[in-house]
Amino acid sequence: MSILVWIITTCIVGGTLSVVCAALFAFNNRTQNYLGGMVSYAIGALLGAVFLNILPEAINLTPNVAILSGTVLFGILLFFILEKLVLWRHCHHEHCEAHLTIHAEHGYDHGRSGMMIIIGDTFHNFVDGIIIAAAFLTDVHLGVVTALAIIAHEIPQEVGDFAILLHSGYSKLRAFQLNLISSFASVAGGILGYFTLQTMQSWIPSLLALAAASMIYVAVADLIPGLHKRVQLRDTLQQVVLIVSGVGTVWLMSVLMVE
């Protein structure tokens, strides 16, 4: 397949898969019990993709490692600011700030919170598409691994989005439709990234550094704190095993793609 076909296919399949899986978690009380495990696995996949694939590739491509490291640092600060401004809101568990605000209102908010989430998620997916394009333009196996990590963390995020939409007054069908439409913003981002980055190859290391920063931020600042709410030894061991499994999956994918 051509690189463009890889990008479009990955964005479509990845976006659809993450929304469908998230819907199964959000709409079924039984499957919600496994969400904590999904979050742990996503942490491993994100960190594995960053430290085993994305950063090594970015270092190989950049003429200045110090500037690349500074870009990662800048990216972490940037995503912190964006989250503070509610432009990029990740919600992975029932008792997050977004849910507490909605429950405190004792009723629907006529779609305001839901629409805010969809706008933020659309922007998020658009950026994910650009990141996937940058990864595929570097190397096909890096693109696949990056897409895998993005899908892994999209599922728990989309579960939170579904919950907010439902509490904001949307039906299950409408919530699913909005999330699915929002996910296709990654396709637009991927296509734009493909045609833009081909003529600006020097941007790719910086974009990979920003991709690494976004994944580090999501894993460390957004997902890991939620795991600390389960302090039992059994829960901790389960979390560690699933995190290692996420890292192992990325490593295995890298090995298979290289072969």
From TrEMBL:
Matching PANTHER family, A to Z?
ZINC TRANSPORTER SLC39A7 HISTIDINE-RICH MEMBRANE PROTEIN KE4 (PTHR16950), ZINC TRANSPORTER ZIP13 (PTHR16950:SF16)
- What keywords is this UniProt entry annotated with? Membrane, Transmembrane, Transmembrane helix
Q: How does it sit in the membrane?
A: Multi-pass membrane protein
One Pfam family recorded for the sequence:
Zip
Question: Would I find Transmembrane among this entry's keywords?
Answer: yes
The record's subcellular locations are:
Membrane
Organism annotation? Candidatus Nitrotoga arctica
Q: Where are the transmembrane segments?
A: 6-27, 34-55, 61-82, 178-197, 203-224, 236-258
Per its record, how is this protein called by name? Zinc transporter, ZIP family
Major localisation: membrane
